[in-house]
Design goal:
Blueprint (H helix, E strand, L loop, with lengths): L1 H31 L5 H9 L3 H12 L4 H12 L2 H8 L7 H10 L2 H8 L7 H28 L9 H18 L3 H13 L6 H31 L1
Helix pairs in contact: 1-2, 1-3, 1-8, 1-9, 2-8, 3-4, 4-11, 6-8, 7-9, 10-11
């Protein structure tokens, strides 16, 4: 176990730093919204989906009901199905490790693990996901606690998530040398902006548009290869 954590820590560290900072931002945001220090930590431990957690705080603060909040969070988190099922198809084999990986897998963890060539052993991947989870929860605890004591501005921490995504995007491009995901992202945004829908539904629609773009690109590439082969 200790050796596995030693292998996983250098891999997870870049995301851990970003997660701790953004988790602290979530804790501060929730504390400012009146959630206290305890409930933000509980949300991070049982939900562990950054965008959805901020959405929960925003919707509850605006008086949204449980059913409405749950439905929007479900739509927002539905994007995990698109990459989670293929990623977890053959790993890990241990049932408990598989359940933990399903719960711990996030956008950034997926991007980090899939950018490493060759892929790390399953035990190391699970440890990386677990370290990222702990880092997020620890950041939330620090942020929510500090938010009760000091009048800090949440805006001063807003750069962290953007910087983290920029680093992960760079690593993905270096590993896979393909701009198709970037193009798909732009298509998703282009579809989303004119619709002016709420955040959760917007994430779902843009995710569908981006996925359709990638599938269409794959179909065209496969059709071209078949044509050349014929």
């Amino acid at each position: 176990m200790f050796l596995t954590l030693r292998e996983a820590l250098p891999i997870a560290l870049p995301v851990m730093i970003g997660y701790f900072t953004v988790g602290a931002t979530f804790g501060l945001t929730a504390a400012e919204a009146g959630f206290g220090w305890f409930w933000p930590v509980v949300i991070s431990l049982i939900q562990f989906a950054g965008a959805a957690q901020f959405l929960i705080v925003a919707m509850v603060s605006e008086g949204a009901g449980f059913i409405d909040t749950a439905a929007v969070v479900f739509l927002l988190n539905l994007r995990h199905v698109f990459y989670g099922l293929p990623f977890l198809a053959h790993r890990p084999e241990n049932p408990l490790a598989r359940l933990l990986m399903i719960f711990w897998l996030s956008d950034e963890t997926y991007s980090l693990l899939t950018s490493r060539k060759p892929a790390d052993p399953s035990r190391v991947q699970v440890a990386v996901a677990g370290l990222n989870y702990v880092s997020w929860a620890a950041g939330t605890l620090v942020g929510s606690t500090v938010g009760q004591l000091l009048p800090l501005s949440v805006d001063s921490f807003s750069f962290a998530l953007w910087a983290l995504f920029a680093i992960l995007l760079t690593e993905q491009l270096r590993a896979n040398r393909s701009f198709v995901p970037v193009i798909a992202g732009f298509v998703g945004v282009a579809v989303l902006v004119p619709l002016k829908v709420d955040f959760g539904l917007g994430m779902f629609i843009s995710g569908l548009a981006a996925t359709a773009t990638i599938l269409g690109w794959h179909w065209l590439l496969t059709a071209r290869q078949r044509g050349m082969g014929g």
